[in-house]
Design goal:
It is a single chain. With 228 residues, the chain is mainly alpha-helical. It has a domain of 153 residues. It has 9 helices and no strands. The longest helix is centred in the first third of the chain and has 35 residues. The protein is elongated and about 80 Å long. The two termini are 24 Å apart.
Length: 228
């Protein structure tokens, strides 16, 4: 996929979400009673957070999906991405039921020797591992329905980017997440005042812009490739 088409998909996802939030914003502005506006802002705030989470999930999943389509080998990509591809191989390394044929009968419970056997087998096949086609599983990107600083840092790390690349948006995002959780737990019954509401609207735009910019730049620069 070309960089232009990657950008188009990101922007298309961004546009419909921002359009819906504009519609909801205009709706709350049209309400004359201030108390009613505060109440509806509670609902809009939950929608704002939902759009952040949905956009983050979409964008990082798109990034991974496009890496998969490049027909790359594990030797060509950053170690963290290769590791995601080799999930089954790493599970085999930890499989205690997989034992050396030589010592299966004589030393069936010798944990060390059977672990060493699995590790040796892995290195015997290292050339095959390096030539393994990059194919990151669909569930590799998971926000856990809780997008805040830690989740964004985790996702950036998972795709081989610097985990602090979006640090400017972490503080307002964490505050939005906390307020969203308060609402979900039955707090904030008094509603959201206009000043606080506008801060959360700005936060949403910053998160979407930041994620869009960082992943588009990373894709355009092939930052998923190994630099060694």
């Amino acid at each position: 996929m070309s960089l232009e088409y990657f950008q188009l998909q990101i922007e298309s996802e961004r546009d419909w979400r921002e359009e819906e939030l504009r519609f909801m914003d205009n709706t709350q502005r049209s309400i004359e009673d201030d108390h009613d506006r505060k109440k509806i802002r509670r609902s809009i705030l939950c929608l704002i957070y939902a759009h952040i989470e949905g956009f983050v999930q979409f964008s990082f999943s798109l990034y991974i999906d496009e890496i998969n389509k490049r027909n790359l080998k594990c030797s060509q990509v950053k170690p963290i991405i290769a590791a995601a591809t080799l999930h089954r191989e790493f599970l085999a390394l930890q499989n205690k039921e997989k034992k050396s044929a030589i010592f299966r009968k004589t030393l069936p419970e010798d944990v060390h020797i059977h672990k060493l056997f699995r590790q040796a087998e892995f290195f015997e096949n290292i050339s095959d591992v390096q030539n393994h086609a990059v194919s990151i599983p669909e569930d590799y990107i998971n926000t856990g329905n809780n997008v805040g600083q830690q989740v964004l840092e985790k996702l950036l790390y998972q795709v081989g980017l610097e985990y602090q690349d979006l640090k400017d948006i972490y503080s307002p995002l964490n505050r939005l997440l906390n307020v969203r959780n308060d609402i979900a737990h039955g707090k904030r019954k008094q509603g959201i005042d206009d000043k606080e509401y506008q801060e959360f609207v700005t936060c949403c735009k910053s998160v979407i812009s930041g994620v869009s910019r960082r992943l588009t730049t990373a894709y355009g620069r092939n930052e998923f490739l190994c630099t060694a």
